[in-house]
Amino acid sequence: MKIGALLAGAALSLTALTASAQTIRVAIGTQDTTINCATAGLLVRELNLLEKYLPRDGKYKDVKYDIQWKNFTSGPPLTNEMVADKLDFGVMAEFPGTLNVTAFQRAGKRSFFIAPISGSVIGSGNGVVVPVNSPVQSFGELKGKTISVPFGSTAHGVLLRAVAAQGWDPARDVNLISQAPEVGGSALQAGSIDAHANFVPFPDLFPFRGFARKIFDGSQTNAPTFHGALVNAEYAEKYPEVVVAYLRAVLEAERLFVAEPEKHSELIAKVAGIDAEVNYLFHGPIGLQTRDYTWKPEFYSAIETAISTLRLLDRPVADLKPQELVDERYIREAYRLSGLDYEARLKVYDKLPLQARDAASGAQITDFKNAAHLWLKGEPGARHYASPQAALAALKQAEAAGQEARVVFVHDRNTGLKLFANQAWYVRDGNGLAAFLLKDDAEAWAKSHGGSVNSFADAKNAAVAVASR
């Protein structure tokens, strides 16, 4: 494959040396528990997709590939191994990715992003949680409290913006301490911190596991965020076809996930230990985040935010512009070879669509902010409903028949955010139930639209009566 000719004039240089009888290493650093990275790591590896696309003709005839995978729990150690030439690719968020580029620069080398993988143009995915029995219902109640967060992470930047939005001084009005996800989870259970901020999937994993409650979503800052794939520039220049092959495997993983989100959520759970219900919350239909492989302007803005925030944190960030951290040519070529339209996808901001009928009425679901989903134990996939009351009524009926729910999802009536139903607040009026992440939002809705604010238990008990009207 002669990629220089295929890239519409793009100057990707090909090595003049033959690769025949050569062994080419393809070493990829992943973050399995950071489920945003799944279609660029875990799924590609577990489904053996990379082998399907690696070039085997032309200069790659008779080549042997040494495919290596290494899993990490965060970006910094992954970056250390990339800089040490132990890895060729890495998958991480925009904050550690920016530090990756800077670390390469300090070593006299270069790396760059080749594609976004998954993210949110409004910042959803990061969040702040409190112990499940905490009286705190909103971020504004955390003044003077101890909040932990992995310092230098995307979640740290989100937390600082949330603090600034309150008009607080981060050095005086809150006590910020650095804790990794597993430490923060233990601290929440021990009651030794008042709140914990973190990145995907922990702000929703901890509530799902029952010891925390989400009080703030990153979308409230309206600041874009993403995870993406990076490559060592020297490697990309030497083996551009291999880089494109990797991205074609990523796009194949995306296609497979879209076709069967429950099945692949189960696979992620089996390998990474992140509950399938949480994977589905983020990446199933109309989930918290969107898997997107095109370089939207908002993702460049996310890099700009990362650069400026890391400077505020006195982290060693070089004087770079966002465009210098990205090379779009590889993902554009991967789209072309996969028969996909990059320019058309670049204009699309929709989440993975829900194309379903209400499991009770058979009516097409069109109002996604009012949609709900019920996944029962023993069933391979989720049932979809046009309203929270329909889903909760179906849950009551299923329980009466001896079935148990794995999970119930609803959507915030204001923002459309996908929520665990048992963590939401509800407004009940004569027309039904409206769901909300925050109690304050539910109270405001009730005040302006009429109705009463209900807990999940109350909403569930009322659902059959409401649904029957």
From TrEMBL:
Record has NAD as a keyword: no
Keywords recorded for this protein, A-Z: Signal, Transport
N-terminal signal peptide: 1-21
Highest rank taxon of the organism: Bacteria
SUPFAM superfamilies per the UniProt record, alphabetical: NosL/MerB-like, Periplasmic binding protein-like II
Family per similarity comment: Belongs to the bacterial solute-binding protein SsuA/TauA family.
Matching PANTHER family: ABC TRANSPORTER SUBSTRATE-BINDING PROTEIN, ALIPHATIC SULFONATES-BINDING PROTEIN-RELATED
Role: Part of a binding-protein-dependent transport system for aliphatic sulfonates. Putative binding protein.
Protein name: Putative aliphatic sulfonates-binding protein
Provenance organism: Pseudothauera nasutitermitis
Taxonomic lineage from the root: Bacteria, Pseudomonadati, Pseudomonadota, Betaproteobacteria, Rhodocyclales
